[in-house]
Amino acid sequence: MRAVPQLLAGLLLTLSLPMYSHADEGNQGTQATIRIGIIGPFTGKSSTDMGESIRGGARVFLQDINQIGGVMGRRIELVERDDQAKPELGVAMAKELVDKEKVVAVIGIANTGVALQAAKVFQDSKKPLIITAATGAAVTKQYMPPAIPDSYVFRLAASDNLQPSVILSDVIDKRKLTQIAILHDDSPYGMYGKENLMAEMQRRKITPVALESFKVGDQDMTAQLSKAKQGGAQVVVVYCLSSEGAMVANSMSKIKLNVPLAGSWTLSQRSFAELAGGNAEGTRMPVTFIENDASNRSNDFVLNYFRINNVKSIPSAVAAAQTYDALRILTLALMQANTTDGDKIKLALEDMKYDTTSTVISRYKKPFSKNDHEAIARNMLFIGEIRRGKVAYAYKEDANSSLIVRTK
């Protein structure tokens, strides 16, 4: 008989937690499923790595949780919706999840532009949303006190308030590269990333040798990179989606700009390495999770992902792991609240009584509070590097520390 995977061990603790009260759900009774929305770009051109991985990570969790009977004596049901990375469609799908599907909470969203608009639907309907890929800092900030007294928008992904600091710490402090060229796309994600990069550089009293933008979908960035080359760039830092990041890498090769490439977490996605080929080698980015981590908890998650989704690799391992962890935290909040009422789930998320024991990225102790809806702290981030087409630890000490419990 196959042994119970390590990831399930912590979930078994749910059997000793409070059981669900019939009165909380009127006539639905304990046999009705608890419906959780999963939203992301499952189809489209620019962001499917993230969307597929959000859905894939959620499906791993679904099997894990339902094997032990679900939550509060009820099985979990995932209701999936494809936003195609389009803000207007994201809003429509958000409304459908709330009004038609009657979900109790929602997990996902990959694109900052989608999150900025769709989050309002969940905020207005008082349905908790945990974002697991979109990193634009403004997404959560716009609903936080004092502007909004009660926010229903949470995130388990590295905010763009964190990533620029981590990127530049590696570039400047560890690699001693100060002649920096910044390239970014013109999406909300790229623009917010650029602003945060510039703020961090200003704090360090460093001026970029080039600051250039490009459109989502552009294939040739040689004009922008030629300016970086003329300015004496020692490194190129990009803030964009994975496909355009690959075009930057290819354009650097085209004009023989032989300097390191670094960027945001999106460069860890499979499509970046596939589209850039050998030009991706050595590229660095901040990540919360690496598919090839040797730890048991990581290995269990990856193997289960492969089996359940019938694949041989994870398109965006970071998005998959963050989604799994977000669902685990949401499950604990449901058990703590002992109801599917949105207000009580939100309060439970903000004051978690249970520490997580079966999550992948970290062991979270009070991941959120009323004034802080960001679960990922800086000590959960480390630098990944493309080696032979796959993301590896840039530094051996990070590989060793990944085996240690990381808490916020």
TrEMBL record:
Q: Which UniProt keywords apply?
A: Signal
Kindly give the InterPro entries that the UniProt entry links to this protein. BCAA_transport, Leu-bd, Peripla_BP_I
Chain ranges of the Leucine-binding protein domain: 33-378
Q: Which domain of life is it from?
A: Bacteria
Annotated signal peptide: 1-23
Please give the CDD domains that the UniProt record associates with this protein: PBP1_ABC_ligand_binding-like
Task: Work out whether the entry's keyword set contains Signal.
Answer: yes
Pfam families per the UniProt record, alphabetical:
Peripla_BP_6
Name the SUPFAM superfamilies on file.
Answer: Periplasmic binding protein-like I (SSF53822)
Which family does the record assign? Belongs to the leucine-binding protein family.
Q: What is this protein called?
A: Amino acid/amide ABC transporter substrate-binding protein (HAAT family)
